[in-house]
């Protein structure tokens, strides 16, 4: 009797796995791992049966940990400063901000780094930080918003968008030229911001040459890593080098260790229970929800281009035949929405989004989401308990360099790779111009509408789209973004248009 053979596409991951020694290079082995994975959506996925841990997973885990400490601390400090200005009875400082960041790194790390993407849905990216919203947090606090009210609204809107598959549809409606222009603008402006911050820090401590040397060493190391094909090592390698360089040049006198080892207060009542402890705001009322509403709409509207950039990074770095392991935009929105509500209810204040400082180096390293997610969640819990590593991670030569080489330079490179011909360059150019005139979100919405109707870019594109995809959805997105920005006064600093609310 002839034995039945299993077709390659029907084999399980465990059956299709081959040891690295059978491949000509490490890169070929990692690409094969991506091609044979068959993630189970919202079902149990197990190490060994559905994926493996590789030493490359340590790189995005370390990069994500460094990045998220910096982001969480920046968000908490922005809320503390804004609320201290908005309310006479509130005085919150650096130590308070670090304590809040530690709260965000414990339970959410267990639930939404280790359990959710690690075991239940390997196609859902980790829920990290919404970087473009950080500059707005001061305005959000001064507008009378409440961190918990904002989180609940954002979570509800995000769940609605994911339930109706709105996130993936918006991603599909964004042409390559528009996406490329968006990434170029975000990458360039973000890189310039980090360079400016490093220079401001070094001149602020009376050692302007330190910032220049740190940046010069970073450029040389980053170029070397790109040349040898190890760019996925950029965040830990460059952040550590920035730390050592600054210390050797004598800049360490402003690096202080004040965070003690132990668990932060995880009692939600302490944080939100009264106006005398925690955030000193008490539970949100109707007025808080009204003030938070436009910012919640804006944050969710900004999710799609953010998620788009991270998925594009996978597509650019993964080989063919790996569609099954690409990040699912709608599932990631679900995870981010739930994480937003849970994390803030415990006492946090993060505004969440797809975790870029994890996804970008993971994609460059040709690694899928789950194994690195488990390592990242474990590192976050350890760091949050120890405390003192957070003082190092928020030091400018570490934090700014990590964001520069781990997020903004890769975004810039990915955007340039997407601009392949004249049609794409036209759409990208208009997107960059519109972003400079207004902001990236409004630019994305406007150029998506123009591109899908053939007014810029590919003139054949409208023929492949329905009326709903050409006009109704892009126009609705543009109007929602514009209305939210006008409501909260985002155009006032540039054009003097006051907030409608």
Automatic annotation (TrEMBL):
Region annotated Disordered, chain positions = 1-20
This protein's UniProt keywords: Membrane, Transmembrane, Transmembrane helix
Does the keyword section mention Transmembrane?
yes
Highest rank taxon of the organism? Bacteria
Keyword Membrane tagged: yes
TM helices/strands, residue ranges: 58-79, 132-161, 173-193, 205-225, 232-253, 286-304, 369-388, 394-416, 428-450, 470-491
Q: What is this protein called?
A: Xanthine/uracil/vitamin C permease
Origin organism is Ferrimonas balearica (strain DSM 9799 / CCM 4581 / KCTC 23876 / PAT)
């Amino acid at each position: 009797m002839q034995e039945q053979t299993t077709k390659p596409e029907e084999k399980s991951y465990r059956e299709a796995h081959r040891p690295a020694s059978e491949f000509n290079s490490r890169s070929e082995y990692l690409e094969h791992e991506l091609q044979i994975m068959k993630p189970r959506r919202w079902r149990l996925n197990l190490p060994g049966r559905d994926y493996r841990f590789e030493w490359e997973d340590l790189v995005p885990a370390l990069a994500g940990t460094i990045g998220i400490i910096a982001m969480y601390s920046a968000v908490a400090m922005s809320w503390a400063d804004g609320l201290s200005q908005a309310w006479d009875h509130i005085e919150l400082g650096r130590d308070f901000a670090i304590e809040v960041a530690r709260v965000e790194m414990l339970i959410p790390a267990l639930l939404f780094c280790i359990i959710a993407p690690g075991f239940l849905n390997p196609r859902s990216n980790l829920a990290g930080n919404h970087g473009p919203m950080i500059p707005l947090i001061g305005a959000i606090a001064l507008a009378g918003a409440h961190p918990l009210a904002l989180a609940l609204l954002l979570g509800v809107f995000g769940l609605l968008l994911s339930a109706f598959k709105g996130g993936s549809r918006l991603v599909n409606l964004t042409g390559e030229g528009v996406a490329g222009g968006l990434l170029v603008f975000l990458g360039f402006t973000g890189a310039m911001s980090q360079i400016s911050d490093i220079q401001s820090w070094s001149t602020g401590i009376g050692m302007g040459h330190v910032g220049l040397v740190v940046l010069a060493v970073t450029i040389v190391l980053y170029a070397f890593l790109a040349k040898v094909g190890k760019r996925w090592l950029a965040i830990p390698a460059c952040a550590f080098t920035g730390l050592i360089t600054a210390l050797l040049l004598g800049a360490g006198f402003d690096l202080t260790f004040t965070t003690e080892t132990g668990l932060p207060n995880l009692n939600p009542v302490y944080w939100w229970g009264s106006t005398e402890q925690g955030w000193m705001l008490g539970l949100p009322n109707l007025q808080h929800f009204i003030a938070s509403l436009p910012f919640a709409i804006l944050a969710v509207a900004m999710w799609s281009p953010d998620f788009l950039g991270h998925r594009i990074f996978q597509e650019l770095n993964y080989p063919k035949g790996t569609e099954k392991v690409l990040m699912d935009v709608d599932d990631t929105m679900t995870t981010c929405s739930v994480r937003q509500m849970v994390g803030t209810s415990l006492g946090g204040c993060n505004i969440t989004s797809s975790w870029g400082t994890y996804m970008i180096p993971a994609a460059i390293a040709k690694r899928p989401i789950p194994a690195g997610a488990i390592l990242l969640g474990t590192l976050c819990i350890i760091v949050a308990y120890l405390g003192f590593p957070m003082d190092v991670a928020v030091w400018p030569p570490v934090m700014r360099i990590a964001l520069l080489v781990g997020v903004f330079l890769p975004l810039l490179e990915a955007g340039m790779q997407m601009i392949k011909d004249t049609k794409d360059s036209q759409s990208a150019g208009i997107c960059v111009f519109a972003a400079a005139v207004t902001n990236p979100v409004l630019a994305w919405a406007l150029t998506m509408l123009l591109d899908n109707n053939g007014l810029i870019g590919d003139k054949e594109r409208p023929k492949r789209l329905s009326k709903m995809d050409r006009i109704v959805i892009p126009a609705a997105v543009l109007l929602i973004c514009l209305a939210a920005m006008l409501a909260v006064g985002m155009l006032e600093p540039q054009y003097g248009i006051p907030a409608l609310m």
